Each structure stands twice: as structure tokens, then as C-alpha cells.
Prior knowledge:
alpha/beta, TIM Barrel
Amino acid sequence: MVPVITQQRKIMKRKHIVAGNWKMNMDYDAGRDLVKAVADKLQPSDTLVILGTPYIHLRNAASIIKDISNLKIAAQNCHQEESGAFTGEVAAGMLASCGVDYVILGHSERREYFGEDDQLIASKIDAALAAGLSPIYCCGEKLEAREAGTENDVVGAQVEAALFHLSTEQLAQVVIAYEPVWAIGTGKTASPEQAQDMHAHIRALLAGHFGQEAADGVSILYGGSVKPGNAKEIFSKPDVDGGLIGGASLKAADFIAIVDSF
């Protein structure tokens, strides 16, 4: 009798990721001290930790953490062109040359204050991937969409516009951060159930376009007032793979406590 071989779908193990977004905070000395403090307190683990710093810290931060395998550096933005007469802008290739591995793109503050739309963000994702950087792509709804019950439609449109033109190989380099705009810097936090529902929705959208295996390999972070006191419960949800941390990333003890929530 010929044995029957049952094949099971292989699910890629997703990375647990805690990424800090310093925003426009920390002068050079304070930033150097914060990177050193995080590096000193961080324990070896399977959790990937990313520090998203202003441009002035990137090179020095990359030098400080170069021997720590689970600690990486992210920029907070990049320009969509490789080079040119764009005074004040920084190209993705320039970031890569400083030892940067990740770049935060599509953050709600870039959308709100600098007029970045889905088309521009998609072009920045392309530029980052071409330079060998992994985008941390941010998406999320405002309060009016949440109250109107259209949050799935809003986030779905953002994900489609930013990511659906990519190949599955390119998608594998992308991290997604769901940030309900109404919970950023307000002290409000989406419930763990609300976060799980949206993360599952995003993963289902990816599965419908790229296939389930590709979708299962994408880390989706929650970004909205994550603190040491609520991180463990939020991270316990099956489709929440970590967090994009704002204010709490500016204090080494708080940030490490969030990392340790895994």
C-alpha cells in the first residue's frame, strides 16, 4: 500500500516587535543617553526592538547598538526620490548608509500635518524597499470613522493603496502598524478586543490579495497609548504582534517594561 502523505500549510513564525517612535524629541546628548540606557537594560530574546529616532541620532545610535542582534534603528520618514534638489529632505539610500534598517512611513502625523496621501506614501514605501530598508507602514482611522462604524473601510483603503502593488517578496519586508488616530497621545486606548478585530481585518485583507501564507508572515503592531500597565493584555491577542510606542519609548525603564511584556 502506498502511504498517504498529508501536507499541512506551513505558517511562517511572525516576529514579535516593539518599536519606539521618539517623534521630535531628545537633543543629541539626551538621545545618546537614552539609546545607551535601552541597550544596557535590554535582555537577549526573540523580540525585535526598534528605536525610531530623529535624523540627528541615527548614525550614533546605530554605532551604539551594532553588536546587539535584537536591537535595530529606524528613521521616522524618508523622501520618495533617490536624490535631487529637495532641500531639507533625506533619501532612503542615505538612511541605509547610516546603518538604519527600518523607516516609519504613513504615520498619522505625517498625513495630518504634512498632507501626505496614500499615493505619496506608497511611493515612499517603494523607495525604502529599493534601498534595502524595511518600512513600518502606519494606518488607522480617525474618531469620526470609528463612531460611524466605517473604520474597516478606511483602514482597508489605506492598506490597499499602500501595499497591494507590492510582490509577496516585498510584502515580507514590511511591518504594519495599526494606529487608531483617536488613541494617539490622548490617553485613550483601543480595547484589546478592538485592536485584535482590526489586526485580524488587516490580515484578512492581506490574505485575500497575497495569500494566507504571506499574510501569516506579516507582523502587525498596535500603536495607540501602549504603556507598561496595558501592554501584556494587548500583546496577548493572536493577531497583535507588538507595538509602536510613542511617549513611553522616551523612558528606558517604561520602554523595556513594554518589551518584557512578551
